[in-house]
Structures are given as structure tokens and as C-alpha cells.
Specification:
Layout (H helix, E strand, L loop, with lengths): L16 E7 L10 E7 L5 E9 L3 E7 L2 E6 L4 E7 L5 E8 L5 E6 L3 E6 L4 E7 L5 E7 L15 E6 L4 E6 L4 E8 L2 E9 L6 E6 L5 E5 L4 E8 L2 E9 L8 E7 L5 E7 L3 E7 L6 E8 L5 E7 L2 E6 L4 E7 L5 E3 L4 E2 L3 E6 L1
Antiparallel strand pairs: 1-2, 1-29, 2-3, 4-5, 5-6, 6-7, 8-9, 9-10, 10-11, 12-13, 13-14, 14-15, 16-17, 17-18, 18-19, 20-21, 21-22, 22-23, 24-25, 25-26, 26-27, 26-28
Length: about 350
Amino acid sequence: MVASSAWSTLARGTELSTFFVGGYTPDMDGESTGIAVLESAPDGSLHYVGVVAEVASPSYLARHGDLLYAAIEGEARVQVYRRGPGTTLEVLGSASSGGDFPCHLLALGDVTLVSNYGSGTIGVLATGADGSIELTQVIAGEGSGPHEAQDGPHAHSTFALDSRTILSADLGADRVHVHTLVSGRLERTATLAVPAGTGPRDFRRHPSGRILLLGELSGQVLVLDWIDGELSIEQAIAVPGVQLGDHAAELSLSDDGSLAFVGLRGSNRVGLIAISPDGLFLDPAGSVETGGNWPRHHVVDGNFLYVANQLSSTVSAFEILGDGGLSSLGEPVAVPSPTHLLRA
């Protein structure tokens, strides 16, 4: 175990920021050995601290209070930890994810939602402040799409519009589902069909209230509106720099919401999209090479963007410039098979 840093990310201008790193271990053809820690200095430079919890392929991480949840992808379960001194982690328990290959978690306190890519199901887990965890509901998916990766339902993420309204993205079926969360259970109440071959993957909420949706397979960002309980598509734009065969991964926003960042696995770039203040209009703003292979995930930390390059086992650092561009901060830092970066 390695002890370092504080539980909350420190503000810009202080000594450092801390990130937990999810990754693939040999069971998923990766080089990691578990959950690791990465630190950044005020100048944006990175320092790899090391692994703080050995576990098989913790590919996605989420936290609520002092609890950390990890999707153990190859074993189809969710493991829960309590944060101890520094960045130490104590295992409290685990439960079935409710399907195969869990790839995303949404921790809401008494409930944690799991998107299971392989089976297309959403697992609902009852979670407590004491670290208790239990699978209580499984919601099945159905349908397929025209892309070779859309052979069946592939649940990829969930997103809370408010305390009762949950969206889910089904990459395999080109559907965004609307659910109501009541007494720890999900009820599916509506479905929005997106254009065939979109492959909906990630959601982000713009400061305007509009919702941005990333299409992994189409390489697009879609603007969604939620008005009077109905979801609609307002606009779509191709991610700058996208090439045939790319798989878009992770959508993030600058602190003021004026810029969106999208990873492009294949061409290994980050596409930049300018966003109008009302969140309705998107304009291409260029793209930059990540300096690594297969940008699986990235995170904005103030004036910096950090990109997890899964297949090259590196994390790249960029400064977000005042004109909306990105400037590389040098050679990427070695980090074994990173798949997710979570501000600690």
C-alpha cells in the first residue's frame, strides 16, 4: 500500500491534485495490478505514485463520501472500499454487477447503478454508508444496431438528471432510456431512439441545463433537451479529427462549459468542440494528438486535461489555453494500462 495526499482534490494553486487510477490487469490483457494513485503539481506535471489496492481489472471507479466503488470488469462484480489515511483503501465487500463486463458506475449513496456492457443490463445495488452492498434489481436491455459492435444491447452508462430521473445509454441498441428511481428501484418510463449507428456512450450536463451525449460509433456529440419530462435531440456535430474506424471515448467539459473534449481511440486524438452559452450550438475547434495509444478516458482538472492512454500504458498532460486550445506538457507519464481517472 502507498499512502499520500488528501481525499478531496486540492484547488488549483495549492501543492498538488490526486487521482485514483482504474486499469486493466492480466485477466483483461493489461499490465496493471489494481487501483493506483497519480498526482499532479501546480504546473500540471504528473507523478505516478503506485498501486494502493491490488484487485483484478478495476476498470471504472466512483465514489460517494469516503467510499470508493470499483467495477471489477472481468469478474462481473462491484467492490467497495473505505478511504483510510492518505490514499489507503480498506476492502469492505463486493456484490454481483448484475451482468457481464461492468463498465460504468453511478454512486448515489443508498443506490449504485452499474452498466454491464457485455449483457446489456443495468444492475441496481443497494449500498450503505457502512460499506454494505447488495444486488437488488436487474434491468434487461434489448435491440441491436447496424454497426458490427451493435450485435445486441450494450449498456454503457447512466446519468442522474435529478434525484429521481435517471438516463441510461445503450450503445448496442441506439437507445437512451429514461427511468424513475423510487425506493431504490428503477422503473423505465420512456425511450429516445438516436440515429442508427450512433452508439450512445457518455452523458455530460452543460451549465445551461442541456445534456450532451457522445456517440462512440458515429464519432458525434449530440445536444439533448429535457423539457416537461420529454427528451429530444436538438443538434449533432462530428467530433473534430474523427477518422473512419475511430471509437470515441469519454466526453468532458471545461469548467465554464465553453469547451468539450472527446477522446478518439484509433487516430489517438482529442477533439475540441466550442459550445455556445445556451448549450445549443456546437462548433468544431480542432484536435490534438494524445501522444499515446487508445485514449480510453480523460479528466479536466482546472486548467489541465489528463488523458489515460490504455494501450500505451501512459497518461498525457495538457494545459487548456485561454483561446480554447490544448498545449502538451511534455512526454506522457508511464501508468500501467489506465482505463479511468477519478479525482480523489
